[in-house]
């Protein structure tokens, strides 16, 4: 079973600068364990204990896995997993101000 995993720029140091890698697993947790065997250190950047890290978003075929079964989400051959760092905050520019707050 082959699953494509799209890797964000910030994590590409773990994948030898590859934008996408392939892995296997029946669940997202299994996939992350499989990736760890070839890309040491990547799992710890994605998972804290048995749940996704707070500032990591993972999508299975464009569906946010937090609204599915988290890292227990089932996978199938040909699925696509996208890992994205969460973006927070804003510009800090207040209306009518002369600069950054």
UniProtKB/TrEMBL annotation:
This is Thiamine biosynthesis protein ThiS. PANTHER family: SULFUR CARRIER PROTEIN CYSO, SULFUR CARRIER PROTEIN SLR0821-RELATED. Transmembrane segments: none annotated. It comes from Streptomyces chattanoogensis. Signal peptide: none annotated. Gene3D superfamilies: 3.10.20.30. InterPro entries: Beta-grasp_dom_sf, Mopterin_synth/thiamin_S_b, Sulfur_Carrier/Prot_Modifier, ThiS/MoaD-like. It comes from the Bacteria. The lineage of its organism: Bacteria, Bacillati, Actinomycetota, Actinomycetes, Kitasatosporales. It holds the Pfam family ThiS.
């Amino acid at each position: 079973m082959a699953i494509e995993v799209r890797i964000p720029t910030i994590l590409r140091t773990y994948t030898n600068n590859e934008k996408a890698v392939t892995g296997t697993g029946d669940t997202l947790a299994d996939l992350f364990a499989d990736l760890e065997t070839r890309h040491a250190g990547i799992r710890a950047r994605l998972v804290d204990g048995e749940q996704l890290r707070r500032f990591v978003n993972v999508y299975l075929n464009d569906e946010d896995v937090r609204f599915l079964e988290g890292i227990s989400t089932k996978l199938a051959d040909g699925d696509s997993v996208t890992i994205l760092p969460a973006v927070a905050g804003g510009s800090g520019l207040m209306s009518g101000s002369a600069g950054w707050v």
